[in-house]
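task queued by scheduler; priority normal; single chain, no ligands, no partner chains; default sampling; output format set to structure tokens
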Amino acid sequence: MWESLSEHDFVPVVGCSLTSFGVVSPTFIGRLKVHVDIVLERVREYSSVKDVKGQRIVFTSIALQDTMERLSHPASFRDMNRQVIMVQRFWQESLAWLTWVQDKWTHFQPSIDDPPAPYESQFMGAYTTKPAIVQQLFRAGVPVWYLRRPEEITLLTVIKDVVDITPPTLINTLNPTFVLYSGMLGDQSLAATCMGVHNYSDIEEFPFHNPDIPRAALEPAAPIVIPFLFSGSGPNSIQLLSGL
């Protein structure tokens, strides 16, 4: 399922006005389709006994089918690579949803006296800013990172250990490539994505997305308005001067 698209699996379209356009080979699509069909069948089986109207799995399962279909639509090799990644992404999200509702949630222990479920290293984990979700995931045995702003950490908070973030080691990229952004998700990562890349990918939700939350700052609460004066010695001569 995690196979990367190679030039050998990219079939150019004969007679197309754009010579760089092509489609993914039926062999490669077939290898993906085996895994996709299994997940979609699980979604159909679950939907037949449970009401999933309005839930996330409705979107991810439809998006998974749509991205699979787009592999047969002519596009550039670069765009096809991104489409393959989107297939893998929606497949993983659909499988994660099913794993949660069919396995984790059914075995979730609501009693606070019961010990948490054992930690499972196969899960990549999640991050959230909501303490209730942290408690749920922890008790279900899912790794979770509780993100908090500096002003939310009080003097009563006990920090037992400080560890460095482990960078990823297995990265599949298209060469030549470059890093668009490195750091936490937020306004800067969105700006780097919007200004530095063109693809069909949706933009992930990110924590701390509410800019109206008040916080301590050294800047004044009201903006300082500085008027500007224009002057010039001719019809096409303009100088921008800052006033008081």
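post-processing summary
- The CA atoms of residues 109 and 146 lie 21 Å apart.
- The first helix runs from residue 26 to 49.
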